[in-house]
TrEMBL record:
Belongs to the 4-toluene sulfonate uptake permease (TSUP) (TC 2.A.102) family. The chain crosses the membrane at residues 43-61, 73-89, 95-113, 125-149, 161-181, 193-214, 220-238. This is Probable membrane transporter protein. GO terms for cellular component: plasma membrane. PANTHER family: MEMBRANE TRANSPORTER PROTEIN, TRANSMEMBRANE PROTEIN YFCA. It is found in: Cell membrane. It comes from Viridibacillus arenosi FSL R5-213. InterPro entries: TM_pro_TauE-like, TSUP. It is a multi-pass membrane protein. The keyword Membrane applies.
Length: 242
């Protein structure tokens, strides 16, 4: 019963973050789902629910999508997807999470110190590629996009819409790739089905919150989310490696 309650809380909070910011679900949900499920199960549940969220929200915010940016990060991610699935099947997942956590914390520190990045087409492709790698390896495409968009001072509406549109593509491709190369299970799909009502409650709450967040608060909230995720991944990966 305690596990079910924790699962509901994870999905609800992550859904609220996704709807209000455009990037919170995988960053929030994946590390904590890994506490309740095996890596393959946690990643696929995250991908399935994130795909549902993207479908539910995309029509309402489609006018804010930066189509040129979206095309570049999608093309970059196509290269990253097969690399990510190879990593997932061959590399120690805890070692990968350790590396991601350290990189996440270092880059977040740079952003807090007002480090800025100039957006270029090449960097758009690179960020898309890294997101593709992280989606199929650990189910978290959000951190590189979030770091990049925050560093380039992307307006919050465009950030939310463009990332959601990208998730619609990358999660679909990643789910198919995961099923083909690693399989799936009835437990994964049942858990995802049970979580859907909680997801829609979270989306409703998140839409209300989004209207009240200004750009400055949005940026501070982004830093807090990145730091908490990085620290959690660091602690969890170190404890698993010991």
């Amino acid at each position: 019963m305690g596990t079910v309650f924790i699962f509901i809380c994870i999905i609800l909070v992550a859904s609220i973050l996704q709807s209000s910011t455009g990037f919170g679900f995988s960053i929030m949900a994946t590390p904590f789902l890994l506490m309740l499920f095996q890596p393959q199960e946690a990643i696929q549940i995250n991908i399935i629910l994130s795909l549902i969220i993207s479908v539910a929200l995309i029509l309402k915010i489609r006018h804010d999508i930066d189509m040129f940016l979206l095309k570049r990060i999608i093309l970059g991610s196509i290269v990253g997807v097969p690399i990510g699935i190879f990593i997932f099947m061959s590399m120690n997942i805890h070692a990968l999470k350790l590396g991601v956590s350290i990189l996440l914390l270092l880059l977040t520190l740079l952003l807090i110190c007002n480090f800025k990045v100039k957006a270029t087409p090449i960097r758009d492709y690179i960020v898309g590629g890294i997101s593709g790698v992280l989606t199929t390896s650990i189910g978290m495409p959000g951190p590189p996009l979030l770091l990049y968009f925050t560093g380039t001072d992307t307006e919050k509406g465009k950030l939310r819409a463009t990332t959601l549109a990208f998730y619609l593509f990358i999660y679909f491709i990643s789910l198919i790739t995961q099923i083909i190369f690693t399989g799936t299970s009835k437990h994964i799909w049942q858990s995802s089905l049970y979580a859907i009502p909680i997801v829609f409650i979270g989306l409703f709450i998140g839409q209300i919150i989004f209207k009240w967040i200004n750009q400055r608060v949005f940026r501070i909230f982004t830093y807090i989310l990145l730091i908490c995720t990085g620290l959690f991944l660091l602690i969890e990966s170190l404890s698993s490696l010991v």
